[in-house]
């Protein structure tokens, strides 16, 4: 450690390494990213002769030439590929270095490998700077091929695998692409609350956020260590008050000195305070505070019942109705007992909201956004996508390319139902019954996008009975201006709608659906004062990662999956 | 609503408006952003003669020329400035349009105003497309100047005010700048979990996340509607089993037909099942499930106690120890009963983590990041920053410029304490005692950055006794490689450290601090297998917004503030 006047050894190392060419991406470390070497158009061959510091973890290692040196495949997470590193036996104990998972920081010279090798450049190590060893007998990730299911039991280590690290880079790219897209189109990022006292109606079961239980546990412990006063204690304290009162009366009638009377009055006050304290303490009840037979939420942290958000939509609408184009991108929660490969208790959602816009604008935005994401991955994550195509899903790159360039098919719900009925007439079997008014099942959605149109499909104008109160009622009075974007591989990727901006209509929709009006008063204010046509949608971010990567289980595309019975780390 | 074959009226409107020049930023709406007109270098004068659709809310309006027309200042949230809009009396009821808060969508022609006016362009309305009226007698935001405190009681409307909308744009810019900075430097965005079963030691009180209370409430309701069986019910059911058993025995001894015996056996089974069900139901206890005198968390959603995260650091470290450079940017929570202007129960943190890096790299990264944010606001948010300088804090632009270009002063904790003691010798008074070993108080930090150095200060190498177990022990065995970045106006903006990568040292630090080892086993694995030198820091995002804007209260720089007693919306 050094202050700014004396250069540290780390700084000196950087000076030595500053002959590294400018193409090597500098960061806040004295090493260079492996990506900046091997992902060059020339595969790094143009850097031959340069001295660099590299850090990473050994993917595979082997000794060669009668243990005279070792070949190590080193990966630093900056890309899917590894840099081949050659260490001679005089530099370090090679038996240690060749273990999978070993961390290594080395200085060396980049050089061209002998002809016929796959890699375009390799590193000849001059100095081993740091080694983080691995005992192969204890390492939780043996070299054998590991299943994604096995890796879910090792969340803290799984980012060291090729698949999870590629998923992480693709997820990162999709997040940055999301912010870039909305920024480019003039949307403001509004961070809606995680803890909420509103319910986005119908979105599902909510987790409760509370300090009542920990408060009750603390109190319970305290009452055991320090039991509440008995009735006898309180009676004794009351008797004391009476006696001290008598003292004062006596002194007064005896015309005692002011000093003596004041002292006695002070004693009396102390005795009264003591009774008050004992009485308060005797009222303490172990357990969660209750009032009138119900839990007393006025004693909870927020003085009312609070939950984890299921959607930022209602809140972000309040910003759209002032700032026109906004979006939220954050975690959302469902306390549903779903054990499927498509559901998580904690997942991320992207929710744009656009004022002065109608359902068609909403569809245009959704289509442009999804296309933008697909094109971004094709442009920026080629190497990781090729890994996915090779190991997980052969069709994933073609799927991205198709979605990026094909106009989405747009059909009304009514047309969609007609098409499904037609298909059944031609012999297609569905498990779920089809008729106008049903909520389309996943099998129906996937049939439309995967079989019938073989491209993304936007279904719009759904029956009002199956949709939320805030969706705009169409002139037919039967449907609402909702839309879902269906894509091959995952089915529903986006759900959105034009919002009901007419005060009279939304009020009657709330009543029609039997919902209480009071919790929505603030939401109704947006319609009472300066109301505006607006629309928005939500994209389940993990579904987009599933769509892009071809991974089957949603638990493998979020760093720390939460589902019933599991919240590791 | 139209499908893709027949153009809708909205599409037709767009065609009509397509003569708008290309500088007008298109979005998913048929209007153009006011920003794209008035923030042009020429103030929009070059657009005179163009027909455009504009949407926004009336900031102020007045009738003129004996009510022949109205002047309206229209704002759409895309920038701080308004577009002046002129509506003639034959177009609409002007009395309605001039009300503050009215929403308006209009088509009109941009024209140069008469000489001597401040604005460079104004809009002459040809057609009023939409009006969202306001009843001024009921509007919650009267035209008089409103305090930020008053606005906190109207969270859903406050983004309509100049100050909160400017803060929102600045906050958006800081978020985008954050992602841009880390993306540029090769960091991957890792979304760490919100719900966690780990505790980032010492970070503070946690909110509990549970479904036990709602489960208990549901059960309680169910038991009232459908009371559990009485002992008599169960006895009766048991008697029934006995009788059905007797039936079977009788039939068997009477050598009845197989059919009759089977029927009796089936009856017996039904009777037994019924007893089992009644007994299970009779065990149901209202209230939260308990076992061995404690709450039975195996029955909670995650089968264990779960909390809202106080920091993503520990989890993001697991990704840094595989992918080298990562960051998390998400909400974090503290269940502390703080009623100050600097604390929130829910706030956003930016936490980068860098492998192959030491404390000095950490300081370099923190300094570069803060400078980048400041320069970004100077470049991208000039107009909003000028508004802040005008209305909130005269010094805010100068402060950004100073931080963007001045090297941060770096001093060790020991030097900092010496400097504070020197200052006291020269007559400076502090409320909190100063000696080596204390945690610096806010007054000390602000003295260093605001008075002594008048620029950002990084204090590093703190006494180990006041810092967390995961900070790397220095060779002096007394201090750890921690660092805090102090800036004028807010004091501590960033806290970070090099992490202890040595297994033996971190284990003894955990034990020395009296912490249990078991919860950190996964964290220790990162040191057991392929350990790497690494470091990181956390920036309180709202503190950065306070620093940038000069706003005093943190509740005014997050869209939906949560603090004790309040979680509106």
UniProtKB/TrEMBL annotation, chains A, B:
It comes from the Eukaryota. It catalyses: tRNA(Asn) + L-asparagine + ATP = L-asparaginyl-tRNA(Asn) + AMP + diphosphate + H(+). InterPro entries: Aa-tRNA-synt_II, aa-tRNA-synth_II, aa-tRNA-synth_II/BPL/LPL, Asn-tRNA-ligase, Asp/Asn-tRNA-synth_IIb, NA-bd_OB-fold, NA-bd_OB_tRNA, WHEP-TRS_dom. Pfam families: tRNA-synt_2, tRNA_anti-codon. One of its GO terms (biological process) is asparaginyl-tRNA aminoacylation. Residues 326-559 form the Aminoacyl-transfer RNA synthetases class-II family profile domain. GO terms for cellular component: mitochondrion. SMART domains: WHEP-TRS (SM00991). PROSITE patterns: AA_TRNA_LIGASE_II (PS50862), WHEP_TRS_2 (PS51185). Belongs to the class-II aminoacyl-tRNA synthetase family. PANTHER family: ASPARAGINE--TRNA LIGASE, CYTOPLASMIC 1-RELATED, ASPARTYL/LYSYL-TRNA SYNTHETASE. HAMAP family: Asn_tRNA_synth. This is asparagine--tRNA ligase. It comes from Pyrus ussuriensis x Pyrus communis.
